[in-house]
Amino acid sequence: MWQRMSSGQQVLLKLRKMIISGELEGGARIAEIPTAELLGVSRQPVRIAFRLLEQEGLLIKNPTRGYTVREISGKLVHDALEVRGVLEGLAAKTLAEQGLSEEQKKTLQHCIQETEKLFNETDEFGDTELERYHHFNVIFHDTIIEGAQNVALIQALAKNNQLPMASAQAITYDQNQALSEYRRLHYAHLQHCSIFDALVHRQAGRAETLMREHSSVVILGETLRNVLSA
């Protein structure tokens, strides 16, 4: 069942976008109190967001206090996404070869159905819609990765997720480009449908190829593409 994101996750989305867009410049030092005041929230959600952004590789914890915004290298992001595609592709291939359990099939199908409802309900995403999309997107990816039952793969992916924008958690959405962003996420949803179909029919090669192609679609929105092409 979908549950609304916590305040920490909502702050996370805002800060992630500020870092990617350059509003928070690479090398800048940031701390809880001024950031909380800037966003009009308490320190607790900012503290949570800082920790998650550190895990995503967008913030570096200072030896004494506070964090430093990490410089985003286009090559680093590209390399991290390429590795993610290889690893998630391998997970999909392995799961297709093993065959979906009834529970895995039910979970993936539920994610697709709920996301389809979301796109049928609206032709523009606000915070609530993005929260729902994010929720089911993460479950979809985690189900495939965990379903592969490959400890080395899971650990390698967890390590790669510490690089900037490499994680399935790291979704961006630019409201100034609402139509193209909506279409991007809808295309990613259609890819989920194709991946699920390949898994159900145990088409290992197709599942791997689709998952590799899918790896960067949700993440690489207008904001990040503009930054990396600058």
From TrEMBL:
Keyword DNA-binding carried by entry: yes
GO molecular function annotation: DNA binding; DNA-binding transcription factor activity
Residue ranges constituting the HTH gntR-type domain according to the UniProt record: 5-72
Coiled-coil zones: none
Protein name per UniProt: GntR family transcriptional regulator
InterPro entries: GntR_C, TF_FadR/GntR_C, Tscrpt_reg_HTH_GntR, WH-like_DNA-bd_sf, WH_DNA-bd_sf
One Pfam family of this chain: GntR
SMART domains per record: FCD, HTH_GNTR
Keywords of this entry: DNA-binding, Transcription, Transcription regulation
